[in-house]
DNA sequence: CGGTATCCCATTTGATACTG
DNA sequence: CAGTATCAAATGGGATACCG
């Protein structure tokens, strides 16, 4: 059976997952964020099968997260570059990295540290904040139907 | 072939995905964050097959993201509750929701709005900040090997 | 190097039936 | 309600071969 799309009134998560949730998609994006641009570099660094890589890259292009640009006008070789839309998945990727480093790995197992180039200090964990920059407790998050809601249920984070 | 685990020196993302990246896992967690506790409520709200739901729930318990608690001592019925570890995936889920709402949906299509209960205002998008709370530009993120690095390469966000 | 095309099979998933 | 068991279908992934 087809891996059917997740359905729920709260479908933003589902929609994101349809684009980002396939195997290899997020690792490819991370690799791109780390500076990889060429097909073979993705291939070698990730250890992904070429055909899968090809499909994923094309889907990312199709969805507007990457674009393919010729290295120079008379070459067939090209770079796969992140668009703004692709770049902005960094928050998602960092959230996943930080969650792993906090909850899965012991401090000694952490493979990669993210730092701010300007201060040379570790980037702190993402926080859910209000408009004033104060941290919001998860239980203080409430949800209301948006204009595209199909049902008018009020959800509440737990 | 088996869906092989993603490999890369930067493996935190991969490890998170091994736990959270399967189909239905994140929607289940979102549903739990929205207050769902009972098997049948997950089943009905998500439209997931029962056997899959059962497997996912048990994996989440095994991984320490949820726990199963009897509703009362002499009942066989029980609640599936998020642990702290499970709760803290909220950041990931919110990152995914916000990315969709910003890059996929038009403003009129947004199905659910997250608000701060205390101020009743919309929760702003997650930001990558330094220790002082200043926003960091993606290009100013650098990466250095952590204690668990297998190779000693310095990566840099693009 | 930078891919595309085929093949093959394990895994996964949804449907259905069944149980306490 | 709260699951478990079984099953068939198909998708998805890796390997391999091939091409400009």
What does this molecule look like?
The structure is a homodimer of 158-residue chains. With 158 residues, the first copy, chain A, is α+β, with helices and mostly antiparallel strands. Helices cover 36% and strands 13% of the residues of chain A. Chain A contains 6 helices and 4 strands, in the order ααααββααββ. Chain A has a two-stranded antiparallel sheet with strand order 1-2. In chain A, a hairpin with a 7-residue loop joins β1 (66-70) and β2. Chain A starts with 11 loop residues before the first helix and ends in a 13-residue tail after the last strand. The relative contact order of chain A is 0.10. The mean pLDDT of chain A is 90. At the A-B interface, α1, α2, α6, β3 and β4 of A face α1, α2, α6, β3 and β4 of B. β3 of chain A pairs antiparallel with β4 (141-145) of chain B. The first copy, chain A, binds a DNA duplex (20 and 20 nucleotides) through α3 and α4.
């Amino acid at each position: 059976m087809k891996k059917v799309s997740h359905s729920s009134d709260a479908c933003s998560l589902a929609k994101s997952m349809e684009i980002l949730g396939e195997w290899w998609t997020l690792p490819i994006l991370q690799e791109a964020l780390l500076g990889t641009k060429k097909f073979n570099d993705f291939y070698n660094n990730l250890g992904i099968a070429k055909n899968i890589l090809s499909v994923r890259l094309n889907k990312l292009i199709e969805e507007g997260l990457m674009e393919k640009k010729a290295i120079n006008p008379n070459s067939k070789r090209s770079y796969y570059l992140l668009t703004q839309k692709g770049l902005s998945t960094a928050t998602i990727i960092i959230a996943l990295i930080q969650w792993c480093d906090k909850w899965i790995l012991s401090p000694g197992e952490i493979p990669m540290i993210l730092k701010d180039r300007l201060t040379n200090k570790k980037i702190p964990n993402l926080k859910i904040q209000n408009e004033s920059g104060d941290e919001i407790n998860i239980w203080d998050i409430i949800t209301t139907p948006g204009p595209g809601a199909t049902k008018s249920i009020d959800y509440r984070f737990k």
